[in-house]
What does this fold into?
Amino acid sequence: MPARKGCSFGSGSSLNSSRRLLQNIANCNCGNDAIIRTVRNGPNAGSKFYGFSLWSDTKCEMFKLIDGSNVTEELQSQLLEMEVVQKFKDDKIKKLQSKKGSLEQDLSELKCEMNQMKIDIMKANTDVANLKLGLFVVLLLFIIMYCLK
It folds into this structure.
């Protein structure tokens, strides 16, 4: 049965990512994945076919019957693709965990620097207060000395 409304079965050759390495066959030209379904009624009942994954929500009627001898190969291809995707995700997780560790260390160092700056600011504020008090005392002594002359 041919697809309608701009969605037709295609090779998916525009999808060159590693996640689509083996399942390019099972994509609709509208860009969505096809999934393996089973015919429930009619003369082909029990047969497997590729159907659009969002079939009930859209007008896409992508359909491709799977030869019974190819079902195992198709499932093996899907399993292999899942393994490739899982390896990609595992590698990404390892990289992100490494980056997270580095960022946590940087954050810890920045917190230490910030605390040291707070201490330095408090010391500077204390020094400013002492300087103001000293200037006030000197000014007071100057006034007293000036008045006593």
